[in-house]
Amino acid sequence: MYDLNFFLQQLSNGLTRGSIYALIALGYTMVYGVMKLINFAHGELFTLGAYFGYTILVTLGLAGSLGPPMAIGLSMIMVLGLVALAGHLLERVAYRPLRHSDRLAAVVSALGASIFLQNAIMLKWGAQYRAFGADLLPNVVFHIRNFNLPLVRLLVFVAAIVVMAILHLFIHRTRLGLAIRASAIDQGAAKLMGIDVRKVIALVFIIGPALGGLAGLLVGLYYGQINYNMGQIYGLKAFTAAIIGGIGNITGAMVGGLLLGLLEAMGEGYVSVAWKDALTFVVLIMILVFRPTGLLPERVAEKL
Amino acid sequence: MLQLIDLKVSYGGVEALHGLSLEVKPGELVTILGANGAGKSTTLMAISGLVRPKSGSILFKNERLDSLRSHEVVQRGVTQAPEGRRVFGPMTVEENLRLGAFTRLKGIEASLEKVFGLFPRLDERRNQMAGTLSGGEQQMLAIGRALMAEPTLLLLDEPSLGLAPLLVKTIFQAIRDINKSGVTVVLVEQNARAALKLAHRGYVLDVGNLVLEDSSENLLNNPLVIDAYLGAQ
Ligand SMILES: Nc1ncnc2c1ncn2[C@@H]1O[C@H](COP(=O)(O)OP(=O)(O)O)[C@@H](O)[C@H]1O
Ligand SMILES: [Mg+2]
Question: Of A71, B16, B148, B182, which one has the greatest count of Cβ atoms within 10 A?
């Protein structure tokens, strides 16, 4: 049973799942990088992305009218935009008014926003599972020798990686990206450079949620069903991924997400499915205890 | 060019500046001296808009800076190399310099060449992470970065702090050159002798109060200054 194909199966599943964790982790890490604050409502923004995707593809039936490729491409763009907007509103309502208050106030506000969003999602879309529908994507499976690669797995992985590559270029090659990195390193010094840090904060509260929302849509596509409280477990896992990579470190969040996905898939395949989630939290606790700055060496781990 | 009028700044109820007034004329190099905790950095941070004054006003070219946000102050042509340098350690020297020009869109390459002309060492270290530079090089970077905005007023907070005498000489020579090129400079220093040799005029602060203000020559010969800040030599 434990042959090469099985290993490749777990590997591809782990990388795909990991790329989803990485997308969500980026939102935690970017917001933390600039604000030194965990956006506790981030998991709910992820869920919101899943439900926006559901509404667009299933309820509005975009997949039926446009055909799968167009519909999925369009839904990704729409989800990115809609959750970006939601993130921006969240920042305006829950964080910006507390700019001059102490950290605890912002944390409480974040927790409140999280509970509010989760309940709002439940009221709007219901507490039961929602199915994306098996016919959304053509049920294509690529066969490479005995190794089976479902189209959806490839799609989710490629979408996540492409978006992360774009983010990487944005952060490292553009003027605004430079401003985000500078604000994460030293807000005061960034202000002395003439950077409007308030705008940078607004920007990370647009980009981070957009990425998390996209991850929600990808989960819907990959697993076929979503639930109003899925943001809790995904949020916790992505947060773990961010910690693995060193919170505040963008490259770290990507690497941490992929590592966690792999770890889970391998644990599931070679140890026990029942232990999958427990494994994540063992990792989280071990890292927090032994290497709270993350696994990447400082030199490689260029902060944001 | 720059005028502080009865400036009061406090941190959470504790007043750090008790009504400071001073003036800097175009083209001048003015130094602010004083012991640790005198309020020198607070003064510069208030000018740069990083701390809000409780009362009083800051005028720059007849415009009030004290109601502006920090990035707007930079846009007006006032930049700072802060105490402790605060370079962006995980970024390259060149990225640090480009950040200094954040408010500008054109002419950045020319400014870059100017800074490299002033500090050739930075040119050599162009692609090196700023955090790996020596203290002196980091100070050059902090000053170079502040110049990248092509400021009319440059604020320098203890540029000699922790540097070997030879490096202090290099830095101070550069400051003289910067001023000669037409940039007005406010130099905060604890190294009073070196600062007074460079500056046209000086102000002496003591725990949030202005105690002296005079030409550098007079301050160098003032018994009070000799006693408190120059030491026996
Ligand atoms: N961020 C701050 N919070 C609280 N108190 C501060 C802060 N910065 C400076 N102070 C206090 O203000 C006074 C002046 O400090 P500062 O301006 O740094 O003096 P200097 O630069 O002359 O050494 C000191 O008593 C210092 O403790
Ligand atoms: Mg100081």
Answer: B148
Interface test with B, best of A181, A193, A197, A299 (most B CBs within 10 A): A193
**Sequence-ordered list of residues with C-beta below 8 angstroms from that of B47, at least 6 positions apart, any chain:** B2, B4, B58, B60, B65, B73, B78, B80, B155, B186
Q: How confident is the model at residue A302 (pLDDT cuts 50, 70, 90)?
A: very low
Alpha carbons B207 and B19: distance in angstroms, whole number: 11
pLDDT confidence band for A173 (50 / 70 / 90): very high
User: Quick check: A176 pLDDT over 60?
Assistant: yes
CB pairs under 8 A between A and B: 66
pLDDT tens-digit series, residues B80-113: 999 999 999 999 999 999 999 999 999 999 999 9
Q: What is the pLDDT of residue A66?
A: 85
Q: Which amino acid is present at A99?
A: R
What is the rounded distance in angstroms from the CA atom of residue A31 to the CA atom of residue A237?
17
Residue from B7, B11, B36, B191 to probe ligand 1 pocket by mutation (most atoms less than 8 Å from CB): B11
Q: pLDDT tens digits, residue range B195-209?
A: 999 999 999 999 999
ipTM of this predicted complex?
A: 0.95
User: What pLDDT is attached to residue A284?
Assistant: 82
pLDDT at A300: 39
Minimal CA separation from B28 to chain A, in Å: 22
List domains and CATH numbers for chain A: 17-290 (1.10.3470)
- Distance linking the first and last C-alpha atoms of chain B: 36
Per residue in B11-55, pLDDT tens? 988 999 999 999 999 999 999 999 999 999 999 999 999 999 999
**A250 within 8 A of A33, measured Cβ to Cβ:** yes
Return the closest-CA partner of residue A16 out of A223, A258, A187.
Answer: A258
* CB-CB contact of B37 with B207 (8 Å): yes
d(CA A189, CA A197): 10
Q: Which residue of A has its CA nearest to B81?
A: A192
Taking CA atoms, what residue in A is nearest to B142? A189
* Contact criterion met (CB < 8 Å) for A191 and B103: no
Q: Which domains does chain B have, with CATH numbers?
A: 26-52+78-230 (3.40.50.300)
